[in-house]
Every structure is written in structure tokens, then in C-alpha cells.
Amino acid sequence: MTLAKLAHAEREAAQARNPGCALHLDWLAEIRVNRAAAERRAATVTTRRSVKGAAQAAWLVKALTCTDLTTLNSDDTPGRVRRLCSKARRPLDPALLDALGLGDRSIQVGAVCVYHAMVPTAVAALEGTSIPVAAVAAGFPHGLSPMRARRAEVEESVAAGASEIDIVISRQHVLRRDWQALYEEVAAFREVCGPAHLKAILGTGDLKTLRDVARASLVAMMAGADFVKTSTGKEAVNATLPVALVMARTVRAYAEATGYRVGFKPAGGISTAKDALAYQTLMREELGRPWLEPDLFRIGASGLVGDIERQLTHFTTGAYAAGHRHALA
What is the main EC category here (predicted)? Predict the structure, then answer.
């Protein structure tokens, strides 16, 4: 095979969907994480690189396109979901787009993420767009429902039109170091997802060590997850930069070993433009430019879009608009 053909084959493999692989327990046993070093490195993310002015505005617009606009509340209604989808279609005011020089571009979020019951409403509201609907499933947020019911929920969400499924793992498998059970669980969800992409939520705030975060991430990827995701947003501790660093490096190790790229999604507690810039910087430094695009990077958030719009308004006008103008109804 010529070098050109080899390079082409490598690019195709990198772009292909992660098929998973056999569970390699020896690989898991080799994983080590120095917590102090990880925390020191994470602390430098916001100090080593400064993005200002027009560059910052461009990064924030890119963050919008990587945002899974989310509503996962007990009082969600079809009306609220339709309003969320309207914001997903047009996250920035047309006048603001004109001021940014983007009036001729279509800017939309990465996905709309809702509970299973709201999938048909979201699918109908987003008809005619390329915005995917992501459904949280599999006993979200605790993952303690019977496996039969969790699989059925995934199947029903896909049948209702969800093209992405955010499943939550059983944290007990990680806490008990039962990697075979975790592998089989994620592989079973991947199977019933069919063409829908699978995001595996680890619930990292419930895991005890960064080493277990790394090992759980690797098992999920071996089982065929398309994305690994930090949190449900319902834990006491959700996404953090040290956790994101460890997961990103595990994603990189998997890509180097298998040739397949897996996406990363931090979620929970990410509500400011500053937060978004920090995670984008981490992706750029640890994983490279491809992980700044929505096919490999998502941010799970509900209030983030409003703050980004507020910061972009300040960039173009020099003044902040009232917070309520950018709030989701």
C-alpha cells in the first residue's frame, strides 16, 4: 500500500464510527492516574492560554454549535420543549449575527437533549433542520432500573426519532470493579441503539477515584460508545476540569491504540461562557482541532447559550443586555 493510500485509510478509520473491541483487562490494569498532577495540569488550562477579542467571539460561536441544549426537569412540558427547540434553531438574534459578520450563516446548536417522553415533541419542533434530538435513557439519572426496562426505553426513544441516546451506566459496576458487567451493559445499549449514536454517562461525581474515571471511560469505549460523558447533571459534583482532563487523555489513548475517535461531553454545572472556553481550550490542547467540532465534542447545558449570547452582545456593542433577554422561557 502506498503512503497516500495508507494515509487515506487512516483518515477513513478516524472518521468511522467506533465499533468497539474486546474487553482488555490487562489494559485497564495498566492505567495509573496521579491525582495531584492532574489537578495541577487542569488548573493551568485557564491561565496558560488567553483568548480575547474577535478570537474569543469566534470560539464562543463555535461553542454554541457544540452545545446540547438541555431540559431535564420534573416539570418539563411540551410548550417548554418547543421553546427550547426554537432557541436551538436560532440561538443568536439575527441582529447580533449581522454585527458579528455572520448574517449569511446558519448557526444552530449541536443537539436538543430531553427526557424520553418529550422526544416526539422535540422531533416535531425540529423538523426540517439538521439538529439531532438526544434522549436521556436507561434509568436516567441513577441507572438502577431493571435492565429489561432500560433497554426498552432506549429502543422506544430511537423509534420515536431520537438520533442520539445518552445512557447512564450502573455506577455500582465501577465501584465494585466489575468491568465485565460494565462492558456487557454498555455493549447491550449500543446494540439496541442501532444507528443512533450512544453517549455513555459515567456519573463521575459518584466515582471514587480519577483512576476509576479513566477505567470506566475506557471500558465504555471498548464496548462501542460513540461519546463518553461526565455527568447526569444531578450528582452533587458534576463536570470538573481534572475529570475532563483524565477522560480526554483516555479518549486519546483509545484513538492511538485503535484508530477510532470517540467524542467527549462534559455536562452539569457548565453555565458561563468562561466555562465553555475552558473546556474548549482543554480539548484543543489535549486532543487537537478535530475535538472542537460537534461530531466529537458537546457541552451539556441549559443556561450556557444565554450567557454566550450576552458576552457576544458585549463584544459587539460594548454593553451587556439585561439577563432576562437571553433567558430560556
Answer: lyase
Q: How far apart are CA 183 and CA 224, in angstroms?
A: 9
Contact present, 216 and 249 (Cβ < 8 Å): no
Element (H, E) at 310: helix 304-317
CB distance 136 to 177 below 8 Å: no
Instruction: Fill in the amino acid letter for 202.
Output: L
Q: What is the pLDDT of residues 207-236, one digit of tens each?
A: 989 999 999 999 999 999 999 999 999 999
* CA–CA separation, 74 and 3 (whole Å): 55
3-state secondary structure 125-174: HCCCCCCCEEEEECCCCCCCCCHHHHHHHHHHHHHCCCCEEEEECCHHHH
Distance CA 329, CA 327 (A): 6
- Tell me whether residue 166 is one of the annotated catalytic residues: yes
242 Cβ contact list (under 8 Å, min separation 6): 35, 38, 39, 42, 210
Give the single-character DSSP code of 292: G
pLDDT tens-place string over residues 52-81? 999 999 999 999 999 999 999 999 999 999
Q: Which secondary structure element, helix H or strand E, spans residue 111, and what is its range? A: strand 111-115
Identified catalytic residue from 68, 206, 265, 275: 265
Is the CATH number 3.30.2350.10 carried by domain 31-326?
Answer: no
239 three-class SS? coil
* Catalytic pick among 166, 206, 212, 307: 166
In the block, cell 446494540 appears at 191
Q: Which of 199, 226, 229, 275 is catalytic?
A: 229
Q: What DSSP string runs through 248-271?
A: HHHHHHHHHHHS---EEE-BSS--
Q: Angle at CA 231, nearest 5°, toward 144 and 90?
A: 120
State the Cα–Cα distance between residues 192 and 184, nearest whole angstrom: 13
* Domain boundary assignment for the chain: 31-326
